[in-house]
Amino acid sequence: MSVSLIRRIATPKKALTTAAVAAATAGIALTSVPAQAATPTSATDAKTIAHQMIPDAAQFNAFSHIVERESGWNIHATNASSGAYGLVQALPASKMSSAGTDWKTNPETQIKWGLDYMNSRYGSPAAAWKFWQANGWY
C-alpha cells in the first residue's frame, strides 16, 4: 500500500485504522499532515471575492481604491496607533463581528462589513471613495 493512497483515505476511523494497520504491517511510517486553512488570505483572493460580491465595475473600483489605500488588501493589516484592523480598517476592529464571527481571518466577512458600512454611511462605495479623496479617510 503506498503512502499516497493512505493520505487519500477519508477521515472515517475504521478506514484510518485499517490503513494504519496495513501500513504498519508493510513497515511504512505514517505521519500526520496539518490541514490547510480553508479561508483565503492573499490579496488576490480577497480581490476576487470582492469582485464577486460587487459586480458593478464602478462600485468595485471605488471599493478597491479605498481598500488599497487603507490596507493594501491585507486582511490582517493593523494600524498600530489606532487599532483599526482589516481590509477596510474598521475601528474598533470588533465592529466587524456584526458580519460574522470569523471577521479576523475571513476576507469575505470583512468585505461584507465594509460594503455595509460604505452603503449605510455614504450610500455606496463610489460615494465613500469620493469622500475619501476629499478627506484622506472615510
TrEMBL record:
Top-rank taxon: Bacteria
Signal peptide bounds: 1-37
InterPro entries, per the entry: Lysozyme-like_dom_sf, Transglycosylase_SLT_dom_1
One Pfam family linked to the record: SLT
Keywords: Signal
Positions of the Transglycosylase SLT domain: 63-126
Protein name: Transglycosylase SLT domain-containing protein
